[in-house]
Amino acid sequence: MMPAARESLLDAAYTALARRPWSAVRMVDVAAAAGVSRQTLYNEFGSKDGLARALVRREADIYLAGVDRALTAHTDPHDRLTATAAWTTANARENALVRAMLTGCWSERLPVPALAAVPSGSALPAQRRADGPLPSPADLVHLVRDRAVAVLAGPGHTRGDTADLARSCELVIRLALSYVVAPAPDDEVAELVRGALHRRPVP
């Protein structure tokens, strides 16, 4: 199947999930919404659980791509980290799957795929990746922290050189997560992050 068709199926699954609990989402309806046969859907994802894993993996990738954009949208390091915190809270507010991945709190409306890898018989690289390990909340914190460190420290840095920077970056993502759990206005998130960074070393 062409990647565009796979994306159409994932879009259809995401739309269906916004309208009803995952337990009530039917594969035949997802296929029809994407304009393909149900057999094509099963050929692509293997099962409803395979579809769920692929959907969760895609939403995690979209979130991390947004982190990368936030980290390169400004030149000032504080602005880069503030933008990362703002993206995290905004994306989690709008996307229940991202919110669940960041907090580990999966409501009964959502699919709850196992984070551990599952046996994959798929010949499709995208589905084999989806069948691999899914990120836990701690994994996402570390991925965002490490991306921030890599951007802010630049090439050629060593782990020992960036210990303080890594702590500052992790502080920012954990502050953002506190606002995911207990929402507040966006400007309050930014103000708290800037205040915290003012007292911490950021290059």
Brief write-up:
The protein is mainly α and 203 residues long.
- The biggest beta sheet, please? none
C-alpha termini separation: 46 Å
Count every helix, treating DSSP H or I runs of 4 or more residues as helices: 10
The stretches of 5 or more residues where confidence is low (pLDDT under 50) are none
Q: So what's the oligomer here?
A: single chain
The total count of strands amounts to 0
Overall form: elongated
Mean of residue pLDDT values: 91
**Estimated helix fraction:** 55-70%
Q: Which secondary-structure class do the elements indicate? A: mainly alpha
Question: Topology, pairings included?
Answer:
Blueprint: H1 3-19, H2 27-34, H3 38-45, H4 48-72, H5 77-94, H6 96-103, H7 125-131, H8 137-153, H9 163-181, H10 186-198
Helix pairs in contact: 1-2, 2-3, 4-5, 4-7, 4-8, 5-6, 5-9, 5-10, 8-9, 9-10
Describe, in plain words, how this protein is organized in 3D:
With 203 residues, the protein is mainly α. The radius of gyration is 19 Å and the shape is elongated. The model has no long low-confidence stretch (mean pLDDT 91).
Short key terms for the protein model shown above:
elongated, 203 residues, 10 helices, mainly alpha
